[in-house]
Amino acid sequence: MRRVVAPILSGGEAQHDGRDLEYLRDLGLLAPDSPPRIANPIYQEVVPRELGYVLQDSLDVRTAWYVDDAGRLDMRKLLTAFGTFFAERAEHWLGRFDDYREAAPQLILQAYLQRIVNGGGRIEREYGLGRGRTDLLVLWPPEAGQPSDLWERFVIECKVLRDSDRKNLAWTVEQGVAQTLGYMARCKADEGHLVILDRRGEERRRGEGAGAGGGRRTDDTDGVVVWTL
Predict the structure, then answer these.
(1) What's the pLDDT band for 40 if we cut at 50, 70, 90?
(2) What is the pLDDT averaged over residues 178-188?
(3) Residue 141 lies inside a defined structural domain of this protein
(4) Geometric angle at alpha carbon 154, from 151 and 155, rounded to 5°
(5) pLDDT band at 209 (very low <50, low <70, confident <90, very high)
(6) In this structure, is residue 106 part of a structural domain?
(7) Which of 141, 144, 149, 222 is deepest in the core (most CB within 10 A)?
């Protein structure tokens, strides 16, 4: 199960064989057609939430900290707080996801977001083999009881850079911004954020001017906020 599910959650390349797929399709976890993907929206929601539940439950953060007086979600403030958390606690929690290490950075981000958004909104997820990214749509109602078509919509595109990757930060930002803009247009989102979780060694990060030791920078590029953590 891990050989199939972990690359799907991370957007990585396939690691499974035919019998793995057959088993998960018989269980109903995967759709019967190709490419391999989680069978339905319920499982797309449940799988990452279950994997990240311990982290989500342990976080000492409150929804009210990131909601303004008008009831709107301050996504920039939320992601700034996540950047601090990731810099300080990432190594500990990456170890806790040992069986899903490839997908651990994305699971940490989703658990943090889920802790906050559980206060009234919801998260929709898109991921799959070979995508190289995880697409998240955060939906938030500024006022209780509003119909969902009036909710705020935030796109969060998540990418992970590793030492094994040939791509550099500049290329990742360029491609990621284009993908984020495309997802925003499809979802009719109000804001777009590209989160790049840089797990490369300090020497390579410094060589690209990306900072080291969990450094964080934000840029506005074509209407997308770029976060490098």
Answers:
(1) confident
(2) 94
(3) yes
(4) 140
(5) low
(6) yes
(7) 141
Task: Tell me, yes or no, whether 24 lies in a domain.
Answer: no
- What local confidence, expressed as pLDDT, does residue 213 receive? 44
- Per-residue pLDDT band at 174 (split at 50, 70, 90): very high
Q: Measured between alpha carbons, how far is residue 51 from residues 115, 140, 173 in Å?
A: 14, 23, 28
CA dihedral 196, 198, 203, 209 (to 10 degrees): 20
The alpha carbon torsion through 111, 72, 80, 170 (nearest 10 deg) reads: 90
Question: Nearest Cα to 126, choosing from 100, 106, 108, 104?
Answer: 106
Q: Cα 79 to the chain's mean position, in Å?
A: 11
Give the pLDDT score at 211: 52
Query: Are residues 218 and 226 in contact, defined by beta-carbon separation less than 8 angstroms?
Result: yes
Distance between CA atoms of residues 218 and 229, nearest Å: 9
DSSP letter, residue 69: T
Residue 196 belongs to a domain: yes
Total domains present in the chain:
1
Q: Which residue has the tokens 């799959």?
A: 128
**Domain boundaries, position 184:** 40-228
